[in-house]
Amino acid sequence: YSEATTLYSESLQIYTEIGDKEGRADALEGLGRVHQLRNEYTKAAALYSESLQIYTEIGDREGRADALRGLAKVYQLQNRYSEAITLYSESLQVCIDIGNQDGRADALRGLAEVHQFRNEYGEAIALYSESLQIFTGIGDKQGRADALRGLGQVHRLKNEYNESCELFSEAVEVYVEIGFGKGRADALLDLAEARRNQGRYSDSMQLYTQAAHVLDQIGDAEAATHALADAVDIRQQFEREELA
């Protein structure tokens, strides 16, 4: 992230010096995204807000919609759900107005996530389903997999484990197809947890082990260790229940 921060900062300085407002807004948004990924939410919010102001000023509606979603995501991560819903909804409307289907689906998924975190499962399912339909229609495979995974999480929270396992399994297949290791590992972990909820401990252990292998391959040793620890924990749980 430090290299990305340096590059965006350098481009921001250049765009500012030559008076390129759109370039400046793009660089600010990029910096906001980096700080968001580093969990530096206050900095990220300030950068997204500044880029949003510039996009609005120059009439760049697509840039404005992107910045709104970026700021909404930060508020979501800060548990400021009402503000996140307002911003995602505003981004959604802009995307509908300009015919940006990818942005529209992304805003719908963001709204779905917020409703999921607020335990509003009916709304979350409807929004994830709509985003899934759009991502599928425009051929955005990662967006499709992310929406499938989100739907699976809501069904798992509703104790609808068969539905959730089908959705997680489909998400895993798509992530494998596009070669996105992090998504594959996350979906495997979701599937492992759902199988654990069903009492299918052998399947769950295998899935946690698979996830650990993928995480190790992509260089996330800490997450791989956690996944293996979960597999061990399930084995111990299974042995305790066998003895009971």
From TrEMBL:
One function term, GO molecular function aspect: G-protein alpha-subunit binding
Domain of life: Eukaryota
Listed GO CC annotations: cell cortex
Pfam family, any one: TPR_12
Subcellular compartments: Cytoplasm
Keywords assigned by UniProt, alphabetized: Cytoplasm, Repeat
Major location (coarse): cytoplasm
SMART domains, A to Z: TPR
Keyword Nucleotidyltransferase: no
InterPro entries: GPSM, TPR-like_helical_dom_sf, TPR_rpt
GO biological process: establishment of mitotic spindle orientation
Signal peptide boundaries: none
Gene3D superfamilies in the cross-refs: Tetratricopeptide repeat domain
Keyword hit for Cytoplasm: yes
Organism field: Tulasnella calospora MUT 4182
Name the record gives this protein: Uncharacterized protein
